[in-house]
Sequence to fold (149 residues):
Amino acid sequence: MSMVTDIGAGLSGLEQLRAFIASGQRPGIADALDFDLVEVADGRAVFAGVPGPHAYNPMGIVHGGYFATLLDSACGCAVHSKLTAQQAYTTLELKIAFHKTVTAQTGRVRAEGAVITIGRRVAFAEARLIDASGNLYATATSTLLVMER
Fold:
């Protein structure tokens, strides 16, 4: 079981995510990359973090994997917020466009994800990675499989 379902067994996806935020827990990837789920609403999820040297590539800038992790998390949890207690999801495809370089000087970034459409078996979501001033660093679109638990 995931940490979210351990916290919120029997709850809707939105209720699970709210309980997860309230618990103050973090999954291992969030500890490793130092980011958090900071907001959740119906069809929306926001992750935030401060990228530092722990996220640098050999060129001295933030690795694209950091962008991808936050954007994938935002898309996935936006979909999770629309699910019933009997449903789960998994990412089938993630497409990312990198618009601007992120460094430690960029400061806190936010990956804001939203559901575009959701059906019985497939969901589509999108996310944007921005800084505190609203500067755009990356965008993503995601296709996700919705399934019964």
In short: The first strand starts at residue 35 and ends at 41. The mean pLDDT is 93. Strands lie at 35-41, 44-49, 87-98, 109-118, 122-131, 136-148.
